[in-house]
Design a protein that fits this description.
By secondary structure, the protein is α+β, with helices and mostly antiparallel strands. 31% of the residues lie in helices and 24% in strands. Strands 1, 2, 3, 4, 5 and 6 form a 6-stranded antiparallel sheet that branches. A hairpin with a 5-residue loop joins strand 4 and strand 5 (127-133). It is elongated, with a radius of gyration of 20 Å.
Length: 143
């Protein structure tokens, strides 16, 4: 009887399904920064340049103090909304102390967002979009 219990416990331990949560979150991050990159490329083609004022150091893409708000440049013409990191990203209305989560677009009044991604304008006139990942940092360079 003891042998059967040990075998059963061992089989449950070795056959439990692997969690794909981290891999799924990283895939969403890649899709998020890729969508932003595509929106920025379309913006550049239409306006013959990048949106103005993108800093030369990594800065958060958000509608908060100190961040860079891409919403006003890309939504709704090039993107339906700013993609949000599956873990860090959030979008809310009202104040940050008592936020009310929302799925409204970032162009509506009183909507704030924190994408969880960063943007940087490089000296060669390329842009770098960065996302944190479970395996490190992922970055897309767009020219």
């Amino acid at each position: 009887m003891g042998l059967v219990i040990i075998m059963l416990a061992t089989s449950i331990f070795f056959t439990r399904p692997k969690s794909y949560a981290n891999a799924n979150a990283d895939a969403e991050r890649r899709l998020g920064i890729a969508a932003i990159a595509q929106g920025l490329q379309e913006y550049k083609v239409k306006h013959s340049g990048w949106p103005e004022g993108i800093p030369d150091k990594d800065v958060a893409i958000d509608a908060l103090d100190g961040g860079y708000d891409l919403c006003k440049y890309l939504v709704p013409e090039f993107l339906q909304g700013i993609p949000l990191d599956p873990v860090l990203g959030t979008q809310y209305e009202s104040d940050p102390v008592n936020p009310t989560l929302t799925d409204k677009t970032c162009t509506e009044d009183n909507i704030k967002y924190f994408s969880g991604y960063t943007i940087r304008h490089n000296s060669d006139n390329s842009l770098a979009l960065t996302a944190g990942a479970t395996t490190g940092k992922m970055e897309i360079i767009i020219r």
